[in-house]
């Protein structure tokens, strides 16, 4: 992907804190720091990977990008419009352009709607097709995601997980969007069908000319399918780099740890995802120094006192670590 | 109905829930039983039984049903009742007309001139006196032949209907008569309509109100939730029987006095709470599901999502609550009517049980038995159905 393509999405300092309420008067007793100043840009037509352990804020980031969540602060520029602060009504014009593929195929489809109803609802709402052409439009969509035409009038429970995820993809495509956030689209699926669904997604990306943000906790998958990757840790981006030379370029200790756990030349290796010791710090109270310090093999004194900032190393490569220069 | 609606119903009938329900044998039996009751209720509503059928005297007091036996005292009373009725007609100012129009239930007077009838009456009295002369009606061996002689002579006074009318008469007397000589079976059947009517109306309205309020509270949260929770906490702290007493006295003397409206009002005011609670909890879970988020990502408004994506997925709760509240309403009706607060101007199972209080002391159990049996079978069927619905329609039991 050419790095000269114009940016479709430009995110600055995105912060998302979830208030936690409790006590007798239902006051805010603390906050979950899910995103702590994330900046990124997505170029038109590229596939940007987002990787990180469970709970590091990947889904939260994805949901903020398509404004399913209202960020606490920061800016999301889509084209030349600012999305943060838009009301439900003002967002309507953007809904058609950006969609999401969800993680859990078992809860992401309404159990009481047939495939046809679910797709028609989307297409009709955004008037992407006239009522007359609707039947053909839906059948075309269903065949595009690799399902048989009979699938149209079935209910979600009649499908397997992989097929459900295909329906989820069809639903995201039904309003003909240009930007899609795929939130761990295959992590709930059987390993044997993960590749099929991923390949389908990439084929459709080319066919529909989509821009994709692809969330995963599996760096191997990201390396294979994405142009660039953001490595997240506890609500912050710790490294951003091109996927082409991931192993050679990776510099952040956390990225290296993730790579170490994913030996690319041995596909049968099913070791646990991380070989890291220790726990992620609590998202309620951010540590003063580097969030990774407690688990970092090369941590210095400075790491515990001062928080490193994301710094540009080369074109398209940013790292936030004191040990990298 | 539009084509879309028809296909919706078809889909529902072929859906997983219905298929599961069909496989559950107990549930199928329960459905047939409930269907039978509904049929009775509908037939009554469409006039197969009139108010005369349930309020008119059809025979002597407390006749037992067909497979029961009664003591000599009561047999003698009933013979006396029958003879006196005919005698009164034959001795009136216009005996021909009185005899021609004579009816007790479906039974008419045997043909003959008034004089012939009076002769037969006299012979019946003779036989009656022969029986009555005995002190010990039940133990003396001389009595049974005299009784059959008496009852033959009494039977000769009457003409029982034949054919369809005969069948109706058999049915009419099959469970005996109450303290005022009214048909117990017909009253119990008529009460079925009252019970189904109360169950339907109270359960339907309560489920609708409860679902709407519960769904709104669970989905919108905030002050809507606070308000609804406050409402049901308040209402659930008032026992419905107190509520009903208050309402009954409020409606007294007004145009609604004697109708079922106070009963409906009291039931709905207390019954909406349980569907409201469960639907609220379910909606709080549902709204976090990814298909609801997907619907927001598409751009649907909150109300549309609530109506199209959230509430339909609480349908199983609506079915189950309807079924449970139906039972609740029927049982509550019985209790209220027993206390004299419920159904008025109509028979109902509760009214019947209330009236049976005095009969039970005399050892007559047909009325209380009939009312209880009718109620128990229906309630049992609905209990079985509720469990089956729970199993079949809960989307979590795939
Ligand atoms: N609605 C919410 N209210 C409160 N806290 C939330 C909410 N959504 C997410 N969080 C918290 O925000 C943090 C980030 O969550 P997020 O779902 O984005 O993680 P994730 O990287 O997607 O993890 P996973 O790989 O498990 O999906 C977590 O600590 C989570 O508990
Ligand atoms: S800043 Fe320090 S603790 Fe953090 S990753 Fe770099 S070396 Fe490790
Ligand atoms: Mg997630």
Would you kindly provide a written description of the structure presented here, covering whatever features stand out?
In chain A, helix 3 (115-125) crosses helix 4 and helix 5 (161-173) packs parallel to helix 6. Chain A is globular, with a radius of gyration of 21 Å. Chain A has 10 helices and 12 strands. In chain A, a hairpin with a 2-residue loop joins strand 9 (228-233) and strand 10. Chain A is an alpha/beta fold. In chain A, strands 6-7-8-3-9-10-12-11 form an 8-stranded mixed beta sheet, sandwiched between helices. A 4-stranded antiparallel beta sheet of chain A has the order 2-1-4-5, with helices on one face. The two termini of chain A are 27 Å apart. With 398 residues, chain B is mainly α. In chain B, strands 1-2 form a two-stranded antiparallel ribbon. In chain B, helix 3 (25-45) crosses helix 10, helix 3 (25-45) crosses helix 19 (366-393) and helix 10 packs parallel to helix 13 (261-271). The two termini of chain B are 31 Å apart. The chains are: A alpha/beta (325), B mainly alpha (398). Bound molecules: adenosine-5'-triphosphate, iron/sulfur cluster and magnesium ion. Magnesium ion binds at residues 58-59, 103, 183-184 of chain A.
């Amino acid at each position: 992907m050419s790095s000269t393509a114009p940016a479709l999405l430009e995110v600055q300092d995105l912060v998302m804190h979830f208030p936690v309420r409790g006590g007798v008067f239902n006051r805010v007793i603390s906050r979950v720091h899910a995103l702590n100043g994330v900046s990124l840009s997505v170029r038109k037509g590229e596939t940007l990977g987002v990787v990180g352990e469970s709970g590091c804020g990947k889904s939260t980031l994805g949901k903020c990008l398509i404004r399913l969540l209202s960020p606490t602060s920061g800016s999301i520029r889509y084209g030349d419009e600012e999305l943060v602060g838009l009301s439900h009504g003002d967002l309507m014009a953007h809904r058609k352009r950006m969609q999401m593929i969800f993680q859990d195929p078992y809860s992401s489809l309404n159990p009481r709607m047939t495939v046809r109803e679910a797709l028609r609802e989307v297409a009709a709402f955004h008037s992407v097709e006239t009522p007359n052409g609707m039947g053909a439009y839906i059948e075309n969509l269903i065949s595009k995601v690799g399902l048989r035409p009979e699938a149209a009038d079935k209910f979600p429970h009649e499908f397997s997980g992989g097929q459900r995820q295909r329906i989820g993809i069809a639903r995201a495509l039904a309003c003909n969007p240009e930007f899609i956030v795929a939130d761990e689209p295959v992590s709930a699926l059987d390993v044997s069908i993960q590749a099929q669904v991923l390949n389908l997604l990439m084929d459709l990306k080319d066919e529909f000319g989509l821009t994709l943000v692809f969330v995963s906790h599996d760096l191997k998958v990201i390396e294979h399918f994405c142009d660039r990757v953001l490595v997240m840790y506890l609500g912050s981006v710790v490294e951003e780099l091109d996927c082409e030379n991931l192993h050679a370029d990776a510099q952040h200790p956390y990225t290296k740890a993730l790579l170490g756990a994913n030996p690319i030349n041995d596909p049968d290796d099913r070791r646990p995802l991380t070989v890291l010791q220790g726990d992620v710090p609590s998202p309620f109270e951010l540590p003063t120094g580097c969030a990774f310090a407690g688990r970092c093999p090369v941590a210095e004194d400075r790491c515990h006192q001062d928080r490193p900032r994301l710094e540009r190393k080369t074109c398209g490569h940013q790292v936030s670590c004191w040990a990298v220069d | 109905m539009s084509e879309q609606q028809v296909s919706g119903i078809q889909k529902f009938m072929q859906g997983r829930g219905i298929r599961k329900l069909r496989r559950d044998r107990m549930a199928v039996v329960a459905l047939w039983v409930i269907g039978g009751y509904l049929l009775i209720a509908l037939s009554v509503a469409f006039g197969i039984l009139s108010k005369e059928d349930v309020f008119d005297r059809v025979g002597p007091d407390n006749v037992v049903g067909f497979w029961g036996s009664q003591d000599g005292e009561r047999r003698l009373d009933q013979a006396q009742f029958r003879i006196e009725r005919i005698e009164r007609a034959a001795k009136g100012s216009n005996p021909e007309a009185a005899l021609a129009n004579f009816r007790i239930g479906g039974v008419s007077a045997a043909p003959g001139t008034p004089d012939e009838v009076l002769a037969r009456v006299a012979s019946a009295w003779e036989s009656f006196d022969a029986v009555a002369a005995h002190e010990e009606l039940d133990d003396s061996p001389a009595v049974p032949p005299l009784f059959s002689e008496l009852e033959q002579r009494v039977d000769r006074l009457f003409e029982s209907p034949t054919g369809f009318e005969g069948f109706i008469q058999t049915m009419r007397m099959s469970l005996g008569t109450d303290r005022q000589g009214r048909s117990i079976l017909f009253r119990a059947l008529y009460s079925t309509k009252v019970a189904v009517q109360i169950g339907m109306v109270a359960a339907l309205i309560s489920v609708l109100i409860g679902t709407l309020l519960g769904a709104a509270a669970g989905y919108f949260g905030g002050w809507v939730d606070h308000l609804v929770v406050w409402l049901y906490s308040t209402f659930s702290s008032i026992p419905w029987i107190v509520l009903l007493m208050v309402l009954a006295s409020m409606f007294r003397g007004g145009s609604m006095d004697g109708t079922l409206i106070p009963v409906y009002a009291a039931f709905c005011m207390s019954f909406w709470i349980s569907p409201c609670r469960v639907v609220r909890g379910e909606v709080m879970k549902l709204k976090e599901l990814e298909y609801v988020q997907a619907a927001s990502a598409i751009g649907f408004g909150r109300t549309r999502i609530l109506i199209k994506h959230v509430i339909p997925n609480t349908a199983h709760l609506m079915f189950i609550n309807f079924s449970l509240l139906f039972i609740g309403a029927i049982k509550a009706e019985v209790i209220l009517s027993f206390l004299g607060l419920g159904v008025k101007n109509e028979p109902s199972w509760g009214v019947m049980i209330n009236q049976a209080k005095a009969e039970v002391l005399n050892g007559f159990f047909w009325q209380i038995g009939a009312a209880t049996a009718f109620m128990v079978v229906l309630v049992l069927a609905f209990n079985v159905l509720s469990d089956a619905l729970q199993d079949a329609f809960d989307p979590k039991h795939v």
